[in-house]
Amino acid sequence: MFKAVRISILLLILFFVVVSQLLTQARSTDWNNSLWVKIYPINADASAEATKYIDGLDVGNFEGIETFLARETERYSRALERPVRIELGEPVLEQPPELPADPNMFSVMTWSLKMRWWAGSVTDAQDRIEPDVRIFVRYHRPDLAVTLENSVGLQKGMVGIVNGYASRRHRGTNNVIIAHEFLHTLGATDKYSPADGHPIGPDGIAEPARSPLYPQRYAEIMGGRIALAEDDSVIPKSLKYAVIGSLTASEINLTD
Prior knowledge:
Blueprint: H1 2-28, E1 35-43, H2 48-55, H3 63-75, E2 84-88, H4 105-123, E3 133-140, E4 152-154, E5 159-165, H5 171-185, E6 219-220, E7 226-229, E8 232-234, E9 242-243, H6 246-251
Parallel strand pairs: 1-2, 1-3, 3-5, 6-9
Antiparallel strand pairs: 4-5, 7-8
């Protein structure tokens, strides 16, 4: 009897967690109210350069993300004046759980659960009220060879991990990656090849009807790069050169 009661309680808790998560995800893409996105900087390599850069951050560093999302949601006829409100959190001193080296379904699920627990625990002291989306930006010295695309956004838990460079010169590129991972938390999917990082047409290309097709002028945000040729592409220098394509817009409920 006791075992049955315990299982029933656990199932009930799981039910409420799932329902709460589904409601949160639905609300995040109804575009009726601003989404509160909080960015937490992390010194990824314990360098003095990253510490200095983080100390000089303010919310204005991320203004381009708000501008991009306001412009693109308006383009899809959403009337919300400020779809995203960004806040800068205090630096986080712990590193997030590492992605599994040889991922499979079980290891990724385990990592996802660890990630969501970690995100809540390291921000608990500074967040009396939880933001809608948490984005942790791991800043590296700009002279290190870091794969910026090795970032991740989780719809379950609405958490993102971004790798960026601790340099004003890379601010625009950092914001492109942050916006990309933020849209993952809303349900947008990648539209680039995992083999080489090039956008996959037509949905990963900003202007699929452009003639000639290459070079493109903009990046589709979930394609991640400006396609210069079928086998050549670059990360845009800022979100001024990025758009939300029609499939991505549908995935995050921007289109009817």
